[in-house]
Amino acid sequence: MTTDSTTDLGLPGLRSGTEGVPTIDAGETQTGKDFTSDQEVRWCPGCGDYAVLKAVQSFLPDLGLRRENIVFVSGIGCSSRFPYYLDTYGMHSIHGRAPSIATGIATAREDLSVWVVTGDGDALSIGGNHLIHALRRNVNMTILLFNNRIYGLTKGQYSPTSEPGKVTKSTPMGSVDHPFNPVSLALGAEASFVARTIDSDRKHLTAVLAAAAAHRGTSLVEIYQNCPIFNDGAFDAIKNPNTKADAIIPLVHGEQIRFGAPLESGLGSKALVRDTNGGGVLVVEAADVDDADILVHDAHHDDPSTAFAISRLTDSGYLNQSPIGIFRQVERATYDDQARAQLTTARGDSEDDPQARLSALIGGGDTWTVV
Amino acid sequence: MTKQVKQLDRVIIRFAGDSGDGMQLTGDRFTQESAVFGNDLVTLPNFPAEIRAPQGTLPGVSSFQVHFADHDILTAGDAPDVLVAMNPAALRANLGDLPVGATIIVDTHDFTARNLAKAGYDANPLDGDGLAEFAVHQIDLTGMTVAAVKEFGLSRKDAARAKNMFALGLLSWMYGRPTESTISFLERRFARVPDIRDANVTAFKAGWNFGETTETFIVRYEVKPAPMAAGTYRNITGNLALAYGLVAGGVQSGLQVFLGSYPITPASDILHELSKHKSFGVTTFQAEDEIAGVGAAIGASFAGHLGVTTTSGPGIALKSEAIGLAVMTELPLLVIDVQRGGPSTGLPTKTEQADLLQAMFGRNGEAPVPIVAPQSPGDCFDAALEAARIAITYRTPVMLLSDGYLANGSEPWRIPEVSEMPVIDPDFATTRNHGDGDDAEFWPYERDAETLARPWAIPGTPGLEHRIGGLEKGDGHGNISYDPANHDFMVRTRQAKVDRIADSLPPLEVDDPDGAAKVLVLGWGSTYGPIGAGVRRVRKAGYQVAQAHLRHLNPFPKDLGEVLARYDKVLVPEMNLGQLSLLLRAKYLVDVVGYNEVRGLPLKAAVLADVIGGLVAEAEGIEVDLTPVEKEIR
Fold first, then answer.
1. For B232, which of A97, A354, A367 is closest by C-beta distance?
2. Of B98, B128, B114, the residue nearest B12 (C-alpha)
3. Which end of chain B has fewer CB atoms at under 10 Å, N or C?
4. pLDDT for B305-332, tens place per residue?
């Protein structure tokens, strides 16, 4: 099985994440070029960021949104240069803080499609607090987390997703830090949409972006992204045609979780089943178990436990195995919709002009008049 | 019995008790009664950082001082004329502040061996003649309260809790305060618990009647209303006035206010207040931390709202990098610092002015930020509006430095007419500003020739799509630039933009009645009251002294250097170790004299009068005797 077959994500459209954002007029068309700014792209040759940028530039026209109503916010790091290369509104902010800035933008304006571009250091280390709180609040935005498992812009120190023992400039004897699994972290932080995709798989990446944009709430998309300079080959196993069938565990809502070399049926030779001992999930040979025992992926389940168990199948070191796809997508009221609704409720149907209401406000309480 | 009525021009009362005794509420009600009566007044709440410090101990003492007068007053008063002490610790903690002859009303109920020991008394101070120099009234306030509210069948503990209202009733009788507002307040406050409501109202009335009938008190006092400028007044704390000023800033600019904030003493009340005003389109976002608070506010400003963040000194330290981002991206942003004692966690509930240099310089790189400071609780309203004007007009973060004293202190405030308030034009960019016709582009850093402000183009505006960020911008087009000459130019331009704000400021108001003073007293922030009162004392003693107070700390008013040069001596009193002094010395090469205290409390007028007197003696080569040459107005 290849990742190509995972691009039908099997997810029905819920209330759209872009509802309220103005769309282009009938007959008007947009192309990737419309979203390309005049700035020279300055990533290293071979960087995975190029592929993601290209995919996003060609995907954005599909949304049919007015370009001026799209905002990209980033933090600091290689990937955070992203907004400069898109001809939308954008802010390249400070290290780790993009989710908080995006929270302000998304809460202030329902008519904007808000995107955050961040990396493993930006989102999970210096900005970890903002990430988890954005996820629990469920502010309507899409967070693209470029995970290359290394610090690139500061030239090669280990990151919070680097494997234990990693030898880098700052860890000559090997890292003794235990890494985060971003998907597990997001699920633990009450995220309503969590997905993982790969920089080089344009089709799957695009499909995940579409699902993330359509989701109302905070969508976290982890993108495995190769750093050819400081961590080259970290994701080779899931990219190499000879190994990827065994390395990628594709998640498609409503389908059995099967992977490995295909059997005659066309389905993968390996499968996931529930671990009746530990509560997690196990990789087994499909032929060794009852078909009915094979786990059917349910991204919409209220309880994130199974999604979490699946996320634990990710290798932290050299990647020989990783679930790819949408782990979780559930509907939950968003912070920004509710905050705006409170403003509307408080306003009521008062027709008084604001200055008259201001005058009444400051003139309230116990007053006295001196003549 | 008929009581004698004695006229006073002013009185300072301090209510003191355990932090659970309701002293802040008692003081606040007495203040409201005095305000409604028409006295001028200033208050000074003083409470521990702990919500319920160990009962009966010195650290647990909470107090509220109110100064009310038949004339215009400026401070909460140096020393109380009357101390109401609800327990031994309250007596012991406050006794040192009392002048000889002061009145002490003590609740004897809690003067038990255990409570005396907790307060560190070996023997009961009420026995013997240790308090002989004061007029002491020993009253079992608690016992009488419990007796008075017996009919409501409350537990003894609940019944005793109404003792603060008994004390308030007694003091209200003594000073002829109107009682209606307190009774209706209690009825509203305890509407859902009729027993408690009735007990409090009954205790309040019982306190009043006790004063009326007992022979303990043979004199009532009268402090006539103060003459004030015509208008409608209310009593207001600094935090409330500041919150109203922010709402007004939104209304007067037509922008929705977005507050991103993290709770911190003594600023949280601004968050609480603004959260009530959603009907004005005010969004309050309680963030996960200080950084997210300012981050969300910056995001909201980028999106076309008026971004505001409120905090105290430790929060500013955390927000510094984000404030630098707002400097670089040149977005409007209000940063409210309600200063408290520092460094580090410091004295959370006490006041200080030691964040001036943090506001001025506390960022990496050359990151100039305009600074405004209110001078009294009511003035927080105007200061907030002024900060909004500067932020929006000049596209810049603005720091507003309030402090704990202004935040919680109160004064009568003449409610302004909306027509008196400035109208602020956000002037959003709507069209491309560089080049012509089809080739026209939008340049986010092409500046207004007069203000040097850049255009504010908000998302949703077609054709003006652009990217901003923390990296250095090329002049005009705003693209990333590492060019040395460009960086030098941009650093100087950001500074010049802030400097140009001075063009919009009025000349510094100098109060120098005869124009003959040789000494100028220059202050900023909440020291306005004590400085003004100190200056008055010196003048009443027949000497010349000038006073000026800075609303704008960055940039300074354009004529400040010239004003400083007019005087032989310049005194700068501050609740820090000389931060404004340092700025003045550096900028104007003037040898200003500092008077500095960092006790967590407002400066005292009498102390300042002595310091000013000393400088006048030096400057004029004369002996200075501060005995008033006419009736003292303190």
1. A367
2. B98
3. N
4. 999 999 999 999 999 999 999 999 999 9
